[in-house]
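Protocol step 4 of 6: record predicted structures for both targets in the notebook before any analysis. Target 1:
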Amino acid sequence: MPLSSKRLERLVRQRGLLERLQRRELAEAIALRDRRARALAEASASRDLLLDAGRPAGPVDVADLLAAGAYLQRLERDIAAREAALAHSEEDVAEERAALMERRRDRRSLELLLERRRAEERLQRSRAESRQLDDLIAARWKPGTPATEDTP
């Protein structure tokens, strides 16, 4: 049983809603990815500042040197974790983008089906009107009778 135009219209509206929701999810995934990229850049900048600081002039305190080494290790672990989180966010963005494209294709195919259905219904109405007009003309004209003129 083919779907009616009304049902197809409802399906197109529903698919449009799903597409908007998917677009929102993609935007959220992109925002999270951007936050993670900024956090990674900040952690990398902190590491670069520590490495660029160089050695202080004068005597070196062993405790300060050990603390700086521990801080550098912590920064390296933090950077590695942030890189992994950013990679995960990139994957999420790619998945959300693919899902959005699928939703768009789905909605678009339903829209095309709806347009074909509407064109088909217009054609059927036109044919029905033509048949009615033919029937009306055939009923007014009877074989063997002269054509009547409607002149006053």
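Target 2:
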Amino acid sequence: MKIILLIAHLIAIATGTGMSIANYINIRITAGEKGDRREALAFLRRVLARIADIVILAIWITGIGLFFSLPPQDEPNSWFIVKMGFVVLLTLCHGLARMTGGKMFRTGDQSLYPRMELFVSGVWMSALAAIIFAVLAFET
């Protein structure tokens, strides 16, 4: 069961990291677009964000499952605590990006693009940091 959880966790992490980078690129491209192209790119971002909700939930569920499958002698080390800080930051940035995107969609306020770009950058930078610290936390 632990191997299946690990596989699912790694797939979810890879998917989430890739999607967050894709959303960042989408935002950068959208900033220079107008009309139908801009609307199509915004629609793609909304679709990816809904999928990302599920991916982040999968990361949390599989990660918690993996944590509880550790042998009792393997207590979390300081790298693991730092990693968890970045996972929480990733989740927070995702939530703030979703809120900002929703406001942009409802109000049409295009001035929120820099804020959206900041939060989406926070998601993928936190994901990369969490991956690095996970490797350090679980090195054998």
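Step 5 preliminary note on target 2. The two ends are 20 Å apart (CA to CA). The chain has a mean pLDDT of 90.
Proceed to step 6 after PI sign-off.
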